[in-house]
Amino acid sequence: MEKEQQVLVVFPHPDDEAFGVSGTIASHVNMGTPVTYACLTLGEMGRNMGNPPFANRETLRSIRRYELKEAARVLGISDLRMLGYRDKTVEFEDPDKLTAEISDMINELNPSLIITFYPGYSVHPDHEATGEAVIRAVGQLPAEKRPKLHCVAFSKNCVEELGEADIVHDISAVADQKLDAIRAHRSQTELMLADMADGLKKKDPATMAWLNFERFWTYKF
Asked: Domains of the chain by range and CATH?
């Protein structure tokens, strides 16, 4: 993995960082690279409430805020920014306003790498709107000043239409940190981790591949 000057991660929900990029984040942090994570919402419309349930619709926002901070601590993220948008409404935000906010962060941080969702291939409307805003913000920069864009894609048609991932990171050295970041989002992940426990214990190849490798597509303007 190449050492970066500054990494900016932009996702809409707490736990988006944990599943697909937490090993990559931890690896950059371990190399001494500052990482900023801009999380647009607090995931207050999440469907899971813990297993057994310990949250409700009224308390979930504050619980997920705490979980996000804990995941950031686990990964060593030096700069966590909670942007205050409402969960499941990012697609309805003024696109110019959202783009401008991301542009302001890019101008402030001058990241050499931005990680976000690949528009059209990230399933959830909040994911799509976030990725689109990042692409617009980067696209406004002169080509020679644009940071690298590494995008997460996981729709069923992503490989068919985009080809195999351009970048595959072996993050097995920090797999325990990745699991700890996922566990930090307890309200959302307890049931999933319980279902995966047998695969992790038996080192099921599919489960271990999901844990140890993170895939990205580069966005080309």
From this structure: 7-218 (3.40.50.10320)
